[in-house]
Each structure stands twice: as structure tokens, then as C-alpha cells.
Amino acid sequence: MKLLFERNGMDVLRPTLIKIEGRVYRKNLIQEQAQQREEEEEDFCAGPGDCADEPCDAFVVEETEKGFQCTVEVPSPLYKYIIGKKGETKKRLETETRTSISIPKPGVEGEIVITGQLRSGVISARTRIDVLLDSFRKKQPFTHFLSFALNQPAIQEKFLQFKEEVLEKCSKDHGVSSSLFQNPAKLHLTLGTLVLLSEREIQKACDLLQQCKEDFVDQIAGGKPLTVEVAGVEYMNDDPAMTDVLYAKVHMKDGSDRLQVIADRLVERFVASGLMLKEWDRVKLHATVMNTLFRKDPSAEERNNPMPGKSASKERESFNGRNILKLFENFHFGEVQLDSVRLSQRFSSDDSGYYATSGELPFS
């Protein structure tokens, strides 16, 4: 008889390992009950290199008159994942770790407080909460992104010319329409996306930007804006006849790689801080000019560097980009002075029409 050790699509003999603040955990999915859960619940066990069996110095556990206590800052939108449906997750955590977990009211920013008579129980509860939060945070849609604004007037004017000429010469090609084009006021380069769920997390990202400026950006940029040329178009997926994203290419006018170096080092630093997930080894510097997501929703945005194949989802209707790529292969959108990196807020606009800025790293 063949024994199957797979459950919910995961091999239980080779569970997923996740790393949080230098510690490694095994991720074990709880078998779902008959009724459908409102939120997916997950359970986690300590793995190699963690601190489940001995005191951990990754967080502070205080001794009190009644035992031990630990606090953890959690953005209010994530409370529900610790509480669970009808409080089941919280009750299970408390029972299995022999602790009491106090959670602020919904919408009220504060700290989750874990108390218990045993230090090991408090550590276990805190560790499991950390892993739960890490898992569910990855499922949240991104709220902010690091960007270079490309919406200077000269670039916008050339972009509108590009749009007009494409519609004039290629409108009969399958799927090509005016609804595919980017809003010229929002032309940008995305470096990476972030999930920032509280003012405190936004401030942490702003502080890290300032630290990056002092540590390496000032030296690389030389205290001056970077002159960048925006020229040529390229497509994201494998088949130009089934294009979902068309983007303009960018390069430093002086031929250097300073823009790429700044982008890569910023992302590296943000990933190391835990504020950003690593998606690629290098940032792909590109400015989206046409996107099939815009067809149904002009404000639609997606993660940086979409994976080939993933873009062909139900909400997309691809377009034939062969003629556009042939006719506009070397289209010159102009030069732009990049003078800052912005922490941009998704689904927002400032007075200029660009994304609202939550923080900024100026080059000069």
C-alpha cells in the first residue's frame, strides 16, 4: 500500500521553513474542519536554530509579581489573525502555551501583552505570534512603494505623443486601446513594495530612508540629481503577441550604473530590515507605459517585476504588441533629473497628480 504524506498541497515530511529575525521555524498547516473558516489558520512549530527550548534574546521577557510578561507591537489590521474566528486562534495559543494574551480593541493601535507563570510559555506564545504575523503579513496587499518620479512636464508631453502615435498606427492590433496607457502624472520607477500598516511602521521606513542617505546614497549620488534618459520600449512576458505590460527603458546619461547601485542597495537594506520582501536579485528599472490591468481599472497597480505567466490572469486581456515594439523600439521619451527617492502611498494622489509622499530621500 502506498502511503501518502501530503496534506493541503504540502509535504509534511518536508515542511516549509521560514526565517524571522535570524530564527528558523517549520510551518505546519492545521487540517481544516468541516465548516469553512472565515480566515485561514496556520500553526507553527519551532525548527532548527530557534529558541523554543531556552530563553531567547530576540525580545524582552520581564519578570512580574505573578510570573512573566512580554509585549509585541502589532498593527491593528493584523489583530484578527491572532484572535481567529470566534476567538479560536487566541484560545488555542493561550491553552497550548499556558498564557494569557491581551489584545487591544479593533482599530486601536497598541501592544499585545502576553503573561504567564512560566517564562518558557511566554516565549513560546510570543514566538508563535511572531510567525503567525509574518505569514499573514505576506498576504496583505502592499500599501506603499519606493519610487523615482518620472512625471516631469517634458516626459509627460513625450509620453502623450507616444500614446497618440500608438493609437494612430496600432489601434487595429488585437487588444490595443486608449484604456491601456498609464496616467502621465503617475509615470515612475518602482524599486520595491512595502506593507506598512501603522503610522509607526511608516515612520520606521522614513527613518531607514534617512539612514540610507547618510550611509551610501550621498556618496553615490554626489549630492546632485541623477540625469536619466528614458528611451525605448520592452515587454514583460515571453510572447509579444500576448503582451500584458509594456514599459519604457531607462539608463544613466553618463553611462554609469549609479542608479542601479542605489536601487539595489536600497532594496537590500529594506529587505534586511524586514520592511520589504526580497523578490529579485536585482531591481529591474522600468517605467510602465501600458498595462492590461488598466483596461478595467485605471488606478490598478501591481507588484514590481511581475513574473512571466502570472500576469495572464482572468482580469487581464492581453494585447498584440508586435507592431508597437517594431515601430517604437527606440522612441525617445526624454531626459529627467531624478532628485529623490520617495516612499509613495498606493492609490493616492498629491497636488501634481503623482502619488502622495509619506517620506523622501533627497539627493541634494
Question: What is the element layout, followed by pairings?
Answer:
Blueprint: E1 6-7, E2 10-11, E3 16-20, E4 23-29, E5 42-46, E6 62-64, E7 67-74, H1 79-83, H2 88-97, E8 99-102, E9 110-116, H3 119-137, E10 144-149, H4 153-170, E11 188-194, H5 199-221, E12 226-235, E13 245-252, H6 258-273, E14 286-291, H7 322-327, E15 332-338, E16 340-345, E17 357-362
Antiparallel strand pairs: 1-2, 3-4, 4-5, 6-7, 7-9, 8-9, 10-11, 10-16, 12-13, 12-15, 13-14, 16-17
Helix pairs in contact: 2-3, 5-6
Question: What integer value in Å does the Rg equal?
Answer: 24 Å
Computed structural class: alpha+beta
- Mean model confidence by pLDDT: 85
- Describe the largest sheet: 4 strands, antiparallel
Distance between the termini: 70 Å
Q: How big a fraction of the residues is strand?
A: 25-35%
Gross morphology: elongated
| Residue share in helix | 25-40%
Number of beta-strand segments: 17
As residue ranges, the low-confidence spans are 1-10, 29-56, 303-312
**Number of helices in the DSSP assignment:** 7
Strand order of the largest sheet: 6-7-9-8
Listing every helix as H and every strand as E from the N terminus to the C terminus, the arrangement reads EEEEEEEHHEEHEHEHEEHEHEEE
Describe this structure in words.
This protein has 364 residues and is α+β, with helices and mostly antiparallel strands. Helices cover 27% and strands 27% of the residues. The protein has seven helices and 17 strands. The chain has helices at 79-83, 88-97, 119-137, 153-170, 199-221, 258-273, 322-327, and strands at residues 6-7, 10-11, 16-20, 23-29, 42-46, 62-64, 67-74, 99-102, 110-116, 144-149, 188-194, 226-235, 245-252, 286-291, 332-338, 340-345, 357-362. The protein has a four-stranded antiparallel β-sheet with strand order 6-7-9-8, covered by helices on one side. A four-stranded antiparallel β-sheet has the order 11-10-16-17, with helices on one face. Strands 14-13-12-15 form a four-stranded antiparallel β-sheet. A hairpin with a 2-residue loop joins strand 6 (62-64) and strand 7. It is elongated, with a radius of gyration of 24 Å. Mean pLDDT is 85; it is low at 1-10, 29-56 and 303-312.
